[in-house]
Write a structure and sequence with these properties.
Layout (H helix, E strand, L loop, with lengths): L2 E6 L2 E6 L6 H26 L14 H23 L8 H20 L5 H10 L2 H8 L8 H20 L5 H23 L14 H17 L12 H27 L23
Antiparallel strand pairs: 1-2
Helix pairs in contact: 2-5, 2-6, 3-4, 3-7, 4-6, 6-9, 7-8, 8-9
C-alpha cells in the first residue's frame, strides 16, 4: 500500500494513502440516474394507457397536482390548522355551512342522475368535501377530526383519480352512484342541521345515518365481488376492482367499530352524524 506523507510544524506524519473511489462508488450516480429514468419511462408507459375521454379535464393531466392537494389537506388538518386556531375563537360559519351542504346535496343528485357521463364529477366532489375537515378546524371541533375521517377524505380522492384516469365508468360507477345517493341524504341532514333549532324537530331520522352508511359498504362490496365469480369478465384493470372491494370492506369494518364503540359499548342510542358541528350534538363524519 502506498504511503502518504505530510509536513506539519511538529514533524512529518505518514500513513496509508487515501484509497481511490471504488468502481461501485464511481458508478453509483449513473445507476441512480438509470433508476430514475426507469421510473420516468414506467410512468410514461402507464400514461399511454389512460382513457382518452378524460384528457383535458381539470386535475387529470398529472397525479402530482391532486397528490399535492391531498398532502396539503392532511398537513393543514393535522398540523397547520390546529396551530392557527390554537389562540383564536372558533368561527361559527353557519351561513357558509348552509350553502355548502345544500350545494353538495344538489351536486350529489346531479351525479346520481348523470352517472354515466359524470364519473369525473364524482372525483371532483371528493376534493370539495375536503372542506368538511376545514370547517371542523375553523370551528375548533378537533375531536371530530378522527383517523376514520382523515383517512377517508384523503385516500378516496387519491384512489379514485387512478380509477377515473384509466377506467371511468363500468363496474366502478356503481360505487360512485351509491356513495352519491348516500351523500344526498347525508348533506341534506347537515344542511338542515346548520339552520339551527328551527329545523331540529324534523331531524328525527339522524339515528339511521350510520346504518345507511353500513348498508352502502355492504352493497359496494357485494356488487364488486361478482367479478370474482365471472371468469369470462375481461375488465381491463382488475386492480381497480380489488381496490373498490377493499374500500367497501375496510370502511364497513371501521364504521362497525364506530357503531360498537358508540352505541353498543357506550350503551346509548345513535346520535350519529351531526351537521358540520351543530351545538349540542355529537358527530362522526367520514363518508
Amino acid at each position: 500500500m502506498r504511503k502518504w506523507q505530510a509536513a506539519w510544524p511538529w514533524g512529518h506524519l505518514s500513513g496509508p494513502a487515501p484509497s481511490e473511489p471504488s468502481t461501485t462508488a464511481r458508478l453509483a450516480p449513473t445507476e441512480s440516474l438509470a433508476r430514475m429514468e426507469a421510473v420516468v419511462n414506467l410512468y410514461q408507459e402507464m400514461m399511454k394507457h389512460a382513457d382518452p375521454r378524460i384528457q383535458g379535464y381539470p386535475l387529470m393531466g398529472s397525479p402530482l397536482l391532486m397528490t399535492s392537494i391531498l398532502l396539503t389537506y392532511v398537513y393543514f388538518v393535522l398540523s397547520l390548522g390546529p396551530r392557527i386556531m390554537a389562540n383564536r375563537k372558533p368561527f361559527q360559519l353557519r351561513s357558509f355551512m348552509v350553502v355548502y351542504n345544500f350545494s353538495l346535496v344538489a351536486f350529489s343528485l346531479y351525479i346520481v342522475y348523470e352517472m354515466v357521463r359524470v364519473a369525473w364529477l364524482f372525483l371532483f366532489s371528493k376534493f370539495i368535501e375536503l372542506m368538511d375537515t376545514v370547517i371542523f378546524i375553523l370551528r375548533k371541533k378537533d375531536g371530530q377530526v378522527t383517523f376514520l375521517h382523515v383517512f377517508h377524505h384523503s385516500v378516496l380522492p387519491w384512489s379514485w383519480w387512478w380509477g377515473i384516469k384509466f377506467a371511468p365508468g363500468g363496474m366502478g360507477s356503481f360505487h360512485a352512484m351509491i356513495n352519491s345517493s348516500v351523500h344526498v341524504i347525508m348533506y341534506l341532514y347537515y344542511g338542515l342541521s346548520a339552520l339551527g333549532p328551527v329545523a331540529q324537530p324534523y331531524l328525527w331520522w339522524k339515528k339511521h345515518m350510520t346504518a345507511v352508511q353500513l348498508i352502502q359498504f355492504v352493497l359496494v362490496s357485494l356488487h364488486i365481488s361478482q367479478y370474482y365469480f365471472m371468469p369470462s369478465c375481461n375488465y381491463q384493470y382488475p386492480v381497480i376492482i380489488h381496490l373498490i372491494w377493499m374500500y367497501g370492506t375496510i370502511f364497513f369494518l371501521l364504521f362497525s367499530n364506530f357503531w360498537y364503540q358508540s352505541y353498543t359499548k357506550g350503551k346509548r342510542l345513535p346520535r350519529v352524524l351531526q351537521q358540520n358541528g351543530a351545538p349540542g350534538t355529537a358527530k362522526v363524519k367520514a363518508n
